[in-house]
Design a protein that fits this description.
The chain is an alpha/beta fold. It is built from 11 helices and 11 strands. Helix 6 links the parallel strand 7 and strand 8. The protein is globular, with a radius of gyration of 20 Å.
Length: about 250
């Protein structure tokens, strides 16, 4: 439950002071021994804590997911596999899984989506990372316009979508190979571009390093770069930008 909602319930008499105190006792974090859940994060930064699922022991992952859902009423998990989802689902029946983005999420009802973020991918092989970005932004309340398979090898495909891209408050450009998509888009729009290198490519791509270096060395202005395959980071940052634009 959000702090504002808790205070509203106390003010209206729906919740007693004792019950509210019990809810607040674990702020700013709850210590599980193996993890310290940052329950204060949404109040502090505007975003609740997200669970990075990859590599977590099963029992830790399930307990973390369950506790965050109980406390926040929603939870987002990234880099999860099908087996982890089944474990989480048994503890949190509201959880759903997308095998493309590898995201597990549990929410209470549909969120209102505001603003606009354009998420563009160079090729279809880049879509898993693009979807991680898009679904992260949607989870945090942004409207996302997906524009996929518009890589520079067929630049007419990108130019045909120019009007849609220019309407967005922020653009996420996801590309592997040489990673030129971010530079081209940044040269077409006035709003910020977040470039996401992916590990898609042949040997000299060095698992995304060549795309990363291209993006960092971009000659276009107004472009920032996140780590290789870091769709979550791009979705988070683009939401911050989108929220400022909406304000």
């Amino acid at each position: 439950m959000e702090i504002k909602e808790l205070l509203r319930q106390v003010q209206s008499g729906e919740m007693s002071l004792e019950a509210a105190e019990s809810r607040l006792k674990d702020l700013p974090y709850e210590d599980l021994g193996f993890a310290k859940l940052d329950l204060h994060r949404k109040l502090r930064s505007g975003f609740p804590e997200t669970v990075f699922c990859q590599g977590k022991p099963d029992e830790y992952l399930v307990e973390i997911f369950k506790r965050l859902y109980e406390r926040n009423g929603e939870v987002l998990g990234t880099r999860a596999d099908e087996r982890q989802y089944e474990l989480v689902k048994a503890a949190v029946p509201q959880a759903v899984y997308d095998p493309v983005s590898r995201i597990i999420k549990a929410e209470q009802g549909e969120k209102k989506k505001t603003g606009c973020i354009a998420v563009c991918s160079g090729g279809t092989a880049d879509i898993p990372v693009a979807e991680e970005a898009a679904q992260t932004a949607e989870f945090f309340g942004s409207y996302v316009d997906r524009i996929y398979d518009v890589g520079v090898a067929g630049i007419h495909r990108l130019l045909a979508q120019r009007e849609r891209i220019q309407k967005a408050n922020c653009v996420v450009a996801v590309a592997g190979m040489e990673g030129a998509l971010g530079t081209v888009i940044a040269g077409l729009v006035e709003n910020p571009v977040i470039a996401v290198p992916t590990s898609v490519g042949y040997g000299a791509n060095f698992k995304g390093l060549s795309a990363l270096l291209t993006m960092i060395n971009s000659c276009a202005n107004g472009i920032s770069v996140v780590n290789i395959d870091n769709g979550y980071g791009a979705g988070y940052l683009s939401t911050q930008i989108n929220r400022l634009a909406v304000k």
